[in-house]
Each structure stands twice: as C-alpha cells, then as structure tokens.
Amino acid sequence: MHDDKATPAPDADPGHTGHPGRPEHTDGGQSRRSVLRTAGIAGAGLGLGAFSGGTAQAADGEAAGARSVAGRGAAGQSGASAAEAPARQGETMIGVPFEGRSTVRVGIIGLGNRGGSMIDLFLAIPGVQVVALCDPVKDKTARAAAKVTAAGQPAPATYTKGDHDFENLCKRGDIDFVYAATPWDWHFEMAKTAMLNGKHVGVECPIALQLDQLWELVDLSERTRRHCMQLENCCYGRNEMRVLRMAHAGKFGDLLHGAGAYNHDLRGLMFDPDYYEGPWRRLWHTRLRGDLYPNHGFGPVANYMDINRGDRVTHISSFGTPSLGLAQYREAHMPKGDPSWKETYIESDRTISLVQTAKGRVIRLEHDVSTPHPYSRINNLGGTKGVFEDYPARIYIEPDHTNDAWGDFSKYADWDHWLWKEHSNPPGGHGGMDYIMVFRLMQCLRVGLVPDFDVYDAATWTSPVPLSHLSIKAKGAPQEIPDFTRGMWKKGRPGVDSAKPEGA
After folding, report:
1. Cα(321)–Cα(317) distance, rounded to whole angstroms?
2. How far apart are CA 282 and CA 469, in angstroms?
3. Longest C-alpha distance within the chain, in Å?
C-alpha cells in the first residue's frame, strides 16, 4: 500500500528517508486499485477542480481558474480567500493529550514495503499490540500476520476483501490507533474513516492532496476529538533534532531563513514494474505541476521556526522547470509498446518554492525526482549568529567559527535530543528515525501526553502540494496558505523538542 516491492532496493542512503530502500511511496495491494481509481479521476479531468470541490477543470487550465480554485474554502465556495478559515465545528485539538493506557492497540492499513517494515517497529516497542491488519494482497497480509505471532502476540484480525475493507478494520472496538501506509490517493479517505470511527490516526505523507480535504481533516479532528497526524519521520532524524534543540537555545541567533527538499532520483524506480506495483506514483507527474512531496523538507524547518507555535506560514510562490526528465528516461529505457508511452508528463522536473512566514522569515522548498542527482533534503537553517546545512552536515556559528570555514557538526553531539541519547543505536531504517518516531508516538499514547505534532501541522506541511501547483500555473503568483489553527498559532507551545516525561 505505501510501497509495494517485496524486497527493497539497495539502501543508497541509510541515514535519510527517501533513498531507494525506503518504502515510503507505495503500497503493494492498494496500488492496483489506486491505479484504476486515479485513472478514472484523470479521465474525468482531475486537475484543478479536484482541489476545490467544484467542477473539475483540465489539468492545464488557465492560471486565473487555478487562483479561483485556490481561493475556495472547505465548502467549495468561490470568492473566499484561501486564508479565510471556515467556521470552527469543534474545539481546538492544540494541547489535547491522548488518553493514557497500559497497552496501545494498533491497526495497520497497507502492508507493502513501508507498512510491511514499519510493523517490525510497532512490535519492538513494549506496551504495543498489533491487533488488526489490512491489505487487499493476501500474501502481504499473511506475512505481516506471521510477524505478529512470531513476536509472541495473538494472531491479528486480517482484512483483505477488496478496496474498502479498511472501513471494517476502523469499525473495530479494540483499536486505539490506526496507521495508514498506502498510495497517496487513499490517505484522506482512510484518515477520515478512522476518526469517524473514534480512532486516532497517523498517515504517511502527504496526508491529503486538496485544500478542502485538509480543512475537512482539521474539522473532523476537532469534532471527533481524535488526533490526526502526518507521520513525518524526518522530524525525528538525529541531525534534525540536534539542530532543533540548538535553534531553540538561540545558537543560531534570530532565525531568518531555512530550506528543505526532496531531491531524489526516482526515475528507475518509477519505471520499475516490480518496485511500484502499478504506475500510480508516476501518474501523478501527469496531473500536477507543483511540489508533490514537500513534507520531508518542510516539516523539520517548520519545527525549527516554531511554525504554528509562535509563527505561521502565510504565502507560497512556486516556479517549475520544463518537464523533460521522465520522458527522456522513457525514451532511453522503455520499449515502445510499454503503457508509459501513453503518458504526458507535466510535473516540473524541479519545483522551487519560497514560503513567507508571519515574522518575515523565508523557507525555500525544492522537489525533484525526475533528474540525475545525489540524494538531498538540503536541511538548512540560518540566523543572525550562523548557519547549518546538511548533505554533508556542516555548521558555521559565531563565536565558534571564524575565517569563513565550515565547522564539524559532530562536535555538537551534546545537543542531541534526549530520545537520541537514550536510543543511540535504534533499529529500523533511515538511520533510526523511523524507530524514534514510532517510539515517541507510542510513548505519548501510553503515558497520555500531547502529541509532538497534530492535524494543524499535517495540513500546513501538506498545503504546498495544491498551492505550488496553482502558483506555477499563475507564473509564480503568491498563493495564500490557510491558517489551519484559526489564530492559535500566535501562542507558543511544545513540539518535537519535547521534554522527557517523568518516570519514562
């Protein structure tokens, strides 16, 4: 569901998410149904109308139409500013803790590469029980169920009967938390179904693809009193958490700018019939021009700058290059009879976005999965006392460094987050960030803590997907980013830079 190849490709970048070994992109069983579903949407004219709840327009519609769509609220009403929040339907979820419990009962939807590997981490954490599994591919469900029993837990219930059997999983009365690792098309529907059935839910990125869907998830979280989270593992990377603590301690001075990216050559994987079970991810390059995957870069920088916790993002301006990379790769590597030759790619090979915050800071976002280049999430932060930049990790802050020469970031290990000090060699992929994320989330659920991030962060980090598309269509014209907190961003509050709970 989130990634479908049974055996991951060699890990080209074990310390960072998004490398070829990361099963973040697909889900085996659901990919087939997703292809059929999205193909139907595309035939109906997905494009801009899908972001408004209004009449669908062609994906290459006029920029003015794109701006109109971006300005529609959750109800699809034209004429309203994108930043104008619809009326609140419930109380805020900011600062709302989980209900404490001795055992967290988990249901997992999607057992491809991502879900099939993340289940190992859920099973490795004390006080967590995997009680139900869902994937239309029965073999994947059976393999995951075998892992559960091998871990000494009771055999989980399994749901393999078609596209919507996840709804039955969500209806169970013995699940506290639903984890969804499926193709992007299904994230919104699964998060919504989980909350409507009284479950907290965590979803792989992006959490949704349309502005009205993001508002609906915010409203549902507030109405149902269930947390809905974008499970952004990059926020828990060792470097990211170290920079976060240093930023909050003032080591970079007053923060001015940051940058994040998902620059990862996926051409071979997107045309590999065995890695993605169906072309669902590649097909998104025929539908949207903007940043399809902003969360890995945006989430950590948003944390550094306390976005939704004292500052907020207000506008985004995006620019895209011509779309040439996938077509040229197809020309060089795919036989003429391959179905991919029917595809026309419009997604910019490289999207560059500038995001403005209420305090005047600037965040640069990049996305490029269609051209050859080494993997990078950039991960940059700068302020009045210095700068950090990753890939490779390097730092320059006053008064520690002089003569315009980069310093050794490893010398700042004392600034590591307490989670990394306690779990210096965590299991799992991506340098351990996956495990740190799951451990901390399950800890919050068991102890009864406020989660490190919430539905407002999920909506904010995902909003560049539709808005960058509309900005590119409007030749870089700024698009307003909604205030999903409805004004509550002005108050500081804890986030991923969390304190260790007493007694934990």
Report:
1. 14
2. 16
3. 65
